[in-house]
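TL;DR need structure tokens for one chain.
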Amino acid sequence: MTPRTRLVVYLVAIHALFAGIAAVLLMRDRLWLFVVELVFAISITTGLLIVRRLFDTFRLPEEGARLIRGREFTSRFQPTGQPQVDGLIDVYNQMVDHLRDERTQLQERQYFLSRVLQVSPLGIVTLDFDDRVSYVNPAAERLLDASTAAVTGRRLAEIASPLAASLATVALGESSVVTVQGARRVKCHRGTFMDRGFPRAFLMIEEMTEELRQFEKAAYEKLIRVMSHEVNNTVGASNSLLHSCLTYASALAPGDREDFTGALRVVIERTEQLNQFMGSFADVARLPPPLRRPAAVREVLEGLRRLMTARPEARAIEWHWRLDASEGAGALGENTDARPLMASIDRGQIEQALVNVLKNAMEAAGPGGRIVVTLSHQADRGVLSIDDSGPGIASEARAHLFTPFFSTKENGQGIGLMLVREVLTNHRFAYSLDSAPGGPTRFTITFPKL
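>> reply
TL;DR here they are.
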């Protein structure tokens, strides 16, 4: 039985008692009938009004609690005229106004944050309490080369992406620059944020490839200019003096003349080689913007095939040129597009870059090795891949690929891949260099078709 029902029963019982007393009094004097009925009516009416107003007051907290549980913060109570109750109503109205304002601000911030994450060039990856991916923004999808559906609910080490494997090794609170597929440089930071009182991890991923390339380029261009200036001045003056000295050879005894001229010619030859050595670096620094023209990619590769296979060292290598795919061959070799694969390129620069890539592949494969050159279609893009059967890329060298002046060769200058990087970047072609442990190594170039 509710408190209201008990109170009504009490009022009915007390008035029934009054009715009994009135009946006794009426038997003695009928004049009391009108007085008793009047008092009885006034009393029960007053009692019911008091009960109603009392429980109307009790209903306010119940209704307020119901609205708060339902997160309904737009409803407000009107004053009742009772000072104590009106004080509670005023407090409640202030509280729901504050909660409504906070909820509105929170929704606005969440919407703003979601929009920022959608358009941000920074990749954002959040992990749940079990270190599984719970959210990736579009930039992170692009950098990971995987869709949200493919990574959500999985640990970073379980995702089939070279970058994801590198992200899994970044320690909490640390930032590092990792190398992906030979050419790309990505800055990663792992931090934490609080979610319902517990820490969760997030990762910020920033593409640094172009920024680092521009920084490196500015640095080595300045270095090359200074070195070339000094070397050219020194070599030019030295060779002039050496050639002048050769004119005195006739004044020497025949027995000394041959040694004298031989020594001077060796020095002249070495200074000229030094000049050529510096010139190769200067050529990279002075690489002009590409003069692009439409060209058939297969025709370019056919010319390179004749050039490269004519080398003596190439005859000991097994070559496979799979260029039919450039005509639209499908998975089973059927021709699905009769048009040749065209691209907008600076033919001279692209040929020079590909020569460097093919030379590296030949050196890696070695005698008895194997090189496969494949040209294929992918939607609106063309893909050129060069595979060699060499030992692969050493782990210590992987982070330094495409770095200026870095070479794993005994007498390497470190400008081959540097030239390739500049040519392909200036053409805005995507490229990568990677290998499985122990080989083979694959160089891939992706370019838009015409």
